[in-house]
UniProtKB/TrEMBL annotation:
Residues 25-237 form the Solute-binding protein family 3/N-terminal domain. The keyword Signal applies. It comes from the Bacteria. The keyword Lipid biosynthesis does not apply. This is ABC transporter substrate-binding protein. The lineage of its organism: Bacteria, Pseudomonadati, Pseudomonadota, Alphaproteobacteria, Hyphomicrobiales.
């Protein structure tokens, strides 16, 4: 009888713990810029902190961020333009923190061509609504070129290497690891230009605001988990790279090569705002901006302020 009572008590304890676990769906793309999501998942940080997280990945962070609309996913990690375009579709999508800075992470690769002049009139693959498109548009502006100087072909990032091999395109604008993979897989493929001196992109964490307001404690725990993952990325880079490589089924050596290009920083600063505004300007110039961004509604700093108040320092841009 005594053993039965002990068993019932243990079952009740475990049962109540399971009942308290908050379920979440989160979504992102498949590249090291979103390492905080992968590390928190692979290292068991979400589980340790009482979250039952279903991590969904897709062709790009921008594509997956659309799941935050309608609360199909409660959080996503994506580039600036992915967040901007989805916020302009639904104000439920809000920025809660910057998560990653990207340095030399975007670029243009080509097969059999080494300069932009050589590529004029040729077919270039670009995935609309992604960081690759933002880089492409910013690069054109920076170099005084026009989109009509090239034949732009819509190609999702995971399909770009195959399209390059088949000869459907001669080059593509994208981000890592696709740039490095293309140079490794397709003979005579080179990096024509990267984003250094053209743009300073970031990846941000976006959440469904109505869900956050109803599940404040869980939302805080989620962001806290990402910040714990960020500490591992910063302080234990080899361990972090191993987690990322496992999540993405990516070569470990390549992952270790790419991780320094995506330092993890959870903050909301004036530079964060500038990155968002730059992306907004690029989208507007390229005719891709649905409407001007209302930053007072788009940025939701409350969670980060509670967890790391010193990391929040910015002025809301005037409309």
């Amino acid at each position: 009888m005594k053993h039965l009572l002990v068993g019932l008590v243990l079952m009740a304890a475990f049962g109540s713990g399971a009942a308290r676990a908050q379920s979440m769906v989160i979504a992102t793309g498949v590249d090291p810029a979103f390492a905080a999501f992968y590390v928190a998942n692979q290292a068991g940080i979400f589980k340790k902190n009482g979250l039952n997280v279903d991590l969904k990945t897709g062709p790009s962070g921008s594509t997956m961020a659309s799941l935050v609309i309608g609360n199909q996913a409660q959080a996503a990690m994506s580039s600036e333009q992915g967040g901007i375009q989805n916020f302009n579709r639904s104000s439920d999508v809000v920025v809660v923190s910057e998560g990653t800075q990207m340095v030399g992470f975007h670029g243009l690769v080509a097969r059999g061509h080494k300069t932009l002049d050589e590529l004029k009139g040729k077919k270039i693959g670009v995935a609309k609504g992604t960081g690759g498109e933002a880089f492409w548009l910013a690069m054109l502006q920076n170099k005084g070129l026009k989109a009509t100087d090239f034949q732009v072909v819509q190609v999702e990032a995971p399909e770009m290497i195959a399209a390059l091999e088949r000869g459907d395109i001669v080059g593509f604008a994208a981000w890592e690891p696709w740039l490095a993979k293309a140079r490794r897989a397709v003979p005579n493929t080179v990096l024509v230009i990267d984003d250094v001196g053209i743009m300073s992109p970031r990846a941000f964490v976006y959440m469904n605001k109505p869900w956050v307001l109803k599940n404040g404690a869980a939302a805080e725990t989620f962001l806290k988990s990402l910040m714990e993952a960020s500490d591992i990325i910063t302080k234990q880079p080899k361990e972090a790279a191993a987690y990322v490589a496992k999540q993405l089924n990516l070569d470990l050596d390549l992952t270790e090569e790419l991780m320094p290009k995506v330092p993890s920083k959870f903050q909301l600063t004036q530079d964060s705002i500038k990155a968002l505004q730059f992306a907004e300007g690029v989208l507007k110039e390229g005719g891709r901006l649905v409407k001007p961004v209302d930053y007072g509604k788009f940025i939701y700093p409350d969670l980060l302020k509670k967890l790391r108040p010193e990391a929040v320092s910015y002025e809301v841009p005037k409309s």
